[in-house]
Amino acid sequence: MGDGCQQGVTVLGATGSIGRSTLDVISRHPDKYRVVALTAHKQINLLAEQCGEFHPEFAVVTEADSAEKLSGLLSEISPETEVLSGIEGMERVASESSVDQVMAAIVGAAGLHPTMAAVRAGKRVLLANKESMVMTGHLFMDEVEACGAQLLPIDSEHNAIFQCLPQDAALGKFSHGVEKILLTGSGGPFRNRATDTLSTVTPEEAIAHPNWSMGKKISVDSATMMNKGLEFIEACWLFGATPDQIQVVIHPESIIHSMVQYSDGSVLAQMGNPDMRTPIAHALGWPQRVGSGVEHLDLFEVAELNFEKPDFGRYPCLRLSIDAMRRGGSATTVLNASNEIAVEAFLNGQIGYMEIADVIEETLSMVAVEEVTDLDLVLAKDSESRTVATAQIDKRRSLPGSRMQ
Ligand code: NAD
Ligand code: MG
User: Fold this and answer.
1) If you average pLDDT over residues 253-276, what whole number do you get?
2) CA pair distance 319, 357, nearest whole angstrom
3) What pTM was estimated for this model as a whole?
4) Domains (ranges, CATH) in the chain?
5) Which numbered ligand comes closest to the C-alpha of 186?
């Protein structure tokens, strides 16, 4: 446990959007939280700056040569910080004995091993990295239970659902008169764009989200609503819900962050301005409440809340996700891996926007679905799906008339 009454916190993915918001909340409560470790992929300068402010025991980067550069930068501003590198370094700081809480905010499958290390060490895990849950499914929840870890959802929707569920309902147990989860999503920047122009969407347009400021990958996922699809899967596992017990609702204002419907007709909603510091502060402080720095909600300014049914023609990735969850087994592993490859190819200008869903659908039809028995099988499926998706992208690029050569 951390010194005195201060909680020791590791922030995995400290330089990202969630990581920076987490440090913003922590900086408001120096009496409550102490940063033990910060990790990053390549943003060495920002990581060094963060170390200069929070003086963690450890800073971890992916590559050894970045670690060397970081050590140079820290020699004056935070000489007490030990610099580590690689997955081993990230796993170590996720499981150190001086750590009480781990913010899992690395993007994509790269977050799996460090997040799992935190779970296995029985830490309190603040889960933003939804991809690790989607790719491993029940294995993740089994491990949480077996290791006595405590899982608190950071995704704003899941955090909202957690807040609206009965207080004595355990995560992973859908009961207590709970009938349905109403999973809200803004519909992204192309909710009203003519569908026949969607194929010309550029990466710049796709990463400009109307309500939330986020990393590039999740911004594209929000535009395609793959993000809602991944969240649908995440919600099934986290709350022990079946696909029939979750309904996706488009709510363009992003003021309600999700709802829970009960058997007596009650629907509980959690509301607030769209700012991730609210769910982050909720999870850091839980079961207490701590200040987040988020501006209070002004309902007169909001004035109107709207709700729509999602159109699967506009959002094929959402349909693919729900189908993959219904199919079960490793289908969601394939979905997640092929999406990561397709989004990267889209951001690099290799495929068009609507081809993201095509590549995922093709990969899903080509990689055999198996029962998820252990992590090795998940990793093998993840890697096979990446190879298949990459080959599909290459095939598309070599087609005569491809716009994206
Ligand atoms: P981001 O791209 O802004 O940040 C990602 C972080 O992960 C960075 O610190 C980066 O250095 C690190 N990283 C990237 N690749 C890595 C690798 N290969 N190995 C180790 N570290 C690596 O992303 P974000 O928007 O902060 O999202 C982080 C996670 O939180 C994602 O899983 C996302 O789905 C989830 N999430 C984000 C938001 C949001 O508002 N940004 C909301 C809900 C959930
Ligand atoms: Mg979300």
Assistant:
1) 97
2) 10
3) 0.96
4) 7-153 (3.40.50.720), 155-195+208-273+296-312 (no CATH), 328-405 (1.10.1740.10)
5) 2
